[in-house]
Design brief:
Length: 553
């Protein structure tokens, strides 16, 4: 089913955008995480990422053209899909917008006629946002974000900020992301404290000249209309002592910069590092608060790798003491944005997909011997999970029905194989994606999984690195779990649950001997995968795992 992509709002004051460059053209296949275009906002030229998968069917704004926020930018859908209804609906919307300027003229005439009687009120309203003051609202950092949680403030009231400074880390429904400042001035007020959640477009912070009184703005709150309207010049007023004390008291608990293991780098530095294959964890930053900037990446050489410092990871699970004998006590712990997103995704999957599960037991003796031989090679490390991920990718090539997604109108067959690997983190479960897994060797898969899992645990992983999976592997064997069933990670059609390797008596060649086995459970969406197809997939998977040499060919 076709998806309409509208002009995004990439800054808090953006009302329209200019397409500087299209990086995709009509007919191109799009995957989640692909950069569609570079869009020029009122602040900067930024990359616009796709959160959808399909074929680019229509481009609504050509290069160099300007379009208001929320107007049709592009349409993504299935190849050959009829989008005439969507385009005709857009035409009708354009006709309506063409009528709006006249209506606005009429409204402005009426407003002018009443201006004389309301001049005093208007003047006081204008002075509510003094000259040079910028009201910053909670940004929408993903296409599905409705509210955000401030994970960390990197600035506090009274700090001077410049364009490009990172103000805070904001937790969305997809990831924790850095929020960059587009203004210059002093932090006058912080509206959302660390750990608090606020809806998109609500008051986040206020920046302006030192000493400016912003109590009127704070008292009445703020809306997008206030921040986007033209602000007339107004005289600065000295902040009263009580307002200063009030502001100080509201920020006494605001913590200073604490990276907690996160890497701070400018978007350009990240792009250059990605292009050059440089791990930002190895680069020393010379920017503010140790932030990595362009010149740091360009001047980096492997020999200049800084000494690693061990940082103790703080547990995010709250310490809740148990009640004394005979006492009943409960405590509510606020759900994180990640926890909410996990709950929503798994709930949708469990209650919409008619699933079934298949179990199989695999002989792991050959796999254990092969792994020992492979890991004897210097600088080589392969885990059993890497072998399973590789076997899944090869099995998906032989059983394309499992490498599919269900839509109301179609079954989408993916020609690419992207295996998601479930990783446990403090606040739940993340699924980094190993792209084009079938074209990777065992050692490449191992390196990719370790890199992605490390990023996930340290909250350094990007949304693009968690999107686009076509199949998922969940392994709890390291916790001693020998058998379990997972919930499908939609829009995948199946997920594999991997248990522990267990030493036990087995029958080989008519004799009872000591063997090593592992149980696998395949949970399938019955809308796309039938029982026989799932069983055949498991048989192929079993063959690859029990004969690892076949995966090295």
């Amino acid at each position: 089913m076709a998806t309409v992509i509208n002009m995004p709002r990439l800054s808090d004051t953006m009302e329209e955008g200019v397409v500087a460059q299209w990086l995709k053209k009509v007919g191109d296949k799009i995957e989640e995480g692909d950069i569609l275009a570079e869009i020029e906002t009122d602040k900067a030229t930024m990359e616009f990422e796709s959160f959808h998968e399909g074929v680019l069917l229509h481009i609504g704004v050509q290069e160099g053209e300007t379009s208001p926020v929320d107007t049709l930018l592009a349409i993504i859908g299935d190849e050959g899909e009829d989008i005439s209804a969507l385009l005709s609906g857009e035409d009708a919307a354009e006709e309506k917008t063409e009528e709006k300027p006249d209506a606005k003229k009429e409204e402005s005439k009426e407003e002018k006629s009443s201006e004389s009687s309301d001049s005093n009120d208007a003047a006081s309203a204008d002075q509510e946002i003094p000259a040079g003051v910028e009201v910053i609202t909670m940004p929408r950092l993903s296409d599905t974000m409705t509210d955000g949680t401030v994970a960390t403030w990197l600035k506090k009231v009274g700090d001077k900020v410049e364009e490009g400074d990172i103000l805070a880390e904001i937790e969305t429904d997809k990831a924790t992301m850095e929020f960059e400042c587009f203004y210059e001035g002093t932090i006058l007020y912080i509206g959302v404290q660390e750990g608090e959640t606020a809806p998109v477009d609500s008051l986040l912070t206020i920046i302006g000249p030192t000493g400016t009184d912003v109590s009127a703005i704070v008292a009445r709150g703020v809306s997008k209309e206030d921040t986007s309207s033209e602000k007339k010049s107004a005289p600065k007023t000295e902040q009263k002592e009580e307002n200063v004390e009030e502001t100080k008291s509201s920020t006494e608990n605001t913590t200073t910069h604490n990276t907690g293991g996160r890497i701070f780098a400018s978007p350009l530095a990240k792009k250059i590092a990605s292009d050059k294959g440089i791990n930002l964890a190895d680069v020393s930053g010379s920017g503010e608060n140790g932030r990595i900037i362009k010149k740091d990446v360009e001047n980096y050489t492997p020999s200049a790798k800084p000494a690693e410092t061990a940082s103790k990871k703080e547990a995010t699970t709250p310490a809740i003491p148990f009640a004394a004998a005979g006492e009943e006590k409960s405590e509510e712990v606020k759900n994180s944005q990640m926890r909410k997103a996990i709950a929503k995704s798994l709930g949708n999957s469990k209650f919409t997909a008619p699933d079934f599960s298949l179990n199989i037991e695999v002989d792991m003796d050959n796999a254990m011997a092969s792994r020992k031989t492979i890991n004897a090679i210097p600088d080589t490390k392969v885990s059993f999970n890497d072998m399973i991920v590789k076997a899944c990718a090869m099995s998906l090539q032989k059983h394309p029905q499992v490498n599919t997604s269900w839509t109301n109108d179609n079954t989408v067959y993916h020609s690419h194989i992207h295996v998601g690997v479930a990783v446990a983190v403090d606040e739940g479960l993340l699924v980094p994606v190993v792209k084009h897994t079938n074209h990777m060797s065992l050692t490449q898969i191992g390196a990719s999984v370790r890199d992605l899992a490390g990023k996930a645990r340290n909250k350094k992983i990007s949304p693009a690195e968690m999107q686009g999976s076509t199949f998922t592997v969940s392994n709890l064997g390291m916790f001693g779990i020998d058998n379990f069933t997972s919930i499908i990670n939609q829009p995948n059609s199946a997920i594999l649950s991997v248990g522990a390797i267990v030493e036990k008596p087995v029958v080989k060649n008519g004799q009872i001997v000591v063997g090593n086995t592992m149980k696998l459970t395949l949970t399938c969406d019955h809308r796309t995968v039938d029982g026989a197809v799932g069983a055949q997939f498991l048989q192929t998977l079993k063959t690859f795992i029990e004969n690892p040499v076949t995966m090295l060919a």
